[in-house]
Amino acid sequence: MPAVIATLNLKGGVGKTTVTAGLGEFLAGEFGRRVLLVDLDSQMNLTAMMIGPDRWVDLNTRGATLAALFADAVDGTRTFRLAEALQRDVSTVDGVAGVDLVPSSLDLIELTEELSALRVRRDDTLAAVGILGDALAPVLGDYDVVLLDCPPSMGPLTLNGLAMAHGYLVPTIPDVLSTYGIGQVQTQIARFAAELGRPIVELGVVVSKYRANATVHRETVLRLRRDPTIAHVLPGYLGESNAIAAAARFDHWPSLRARYGARGQFDQFRELARTVLVEAEHKLPEATPRP
Ligand SMILES: Nc1ncnc2c1ncn2[C@@H]1O[C@H](COP(=O)(O)OP(=O)(O)O)[C@@H](O)[C@H]1O
Ligand SMILES: [Mg+2]
């Protein structure tokens, strides 16, 4: 069973997608793990980052994205073919093998409302949250780690991710407004986990876009580290850098250092990936990724 980990914060622009992509590529490239990336955000940034717009248009036209899976659930058809949607070995970084992707689609925007309506109509809070888990179940054994990039909401797509997740990471910029949402995420996930009848473990907060020369950033990191309600502030703070911003470009990259930055960023991401493996090993008993 792979470790299934959701990346979630109710605020947008805090680095969720960048953390998910970087973790995926470092876990595969530096630690030899087989990684499945699942893009649950209708903004489809992770999809664009990994396979680019042309290949996405082709897949979307053929109904080979998560939109087809969720559309099936809404209208009762069965058009989604996981084998077609699952994109193998998508990393464009030389030497990084074993990163697969289930792509998202802009068409998820409309479907989100219909999925919410489905939950209400069936008068069953757990209706329509097992769609993703059921669809991916046949291939989960092929992976060591599954990373779910969630939209910045607790809508039905995020709940589908959480319903199959063992644990979650909360990326945040260490400033006042970005950290407001952490408590809300924890509370809402705990409530949903209670509904599911099993824990969804908080693996920790990932500090992103860190600026060591910003007083508010330094103070916020200290505050988070002292906060008894936060399980863990993971080491390997990702600094704000042009290199990490440019890593979002769909391009051919000669190495992880070329994509994510060689001036400390490589070490930050590597440390983050290593820590996630250690945390998963300790805190997710039902998942067994080797550390
Ligand atoms: N450490 C970083 N340094 C500089 N830019 C970053 C960093 N992390 C993310 N970004 C950029 O900030 C924007 C938001 O990041 P993203 O990962 O898309 O956040 P989210 O998924 O939470 O909306 C993107 O343009 C991304 O390229
Ligand atoms: Mg995102």
UniProtKB/TrEMBL annotation:
Domain of life of the organism encoding this protein: Bacteria
Residue stretches making up the AAA domain: 4-195
Family annotation (Pfam families): AAA_31
InterPro entries: AAA_dom, DNA_Partitioning_ATPase, P-loop_NTPase
Signal peptide limits: none
Entries under Gene3D superfamilies matching the protein: P-loop containing nucleotide triphosphate hydrolases (3.40.50.300)
PANTHER family recorded: P-LOOP CONTAINING NUCLEOSIDE TRIPHOSPHATE HYDROLASE, PARA FAMILY PROTEIN CT_582
Name of protein: Chromosome partitioning protein
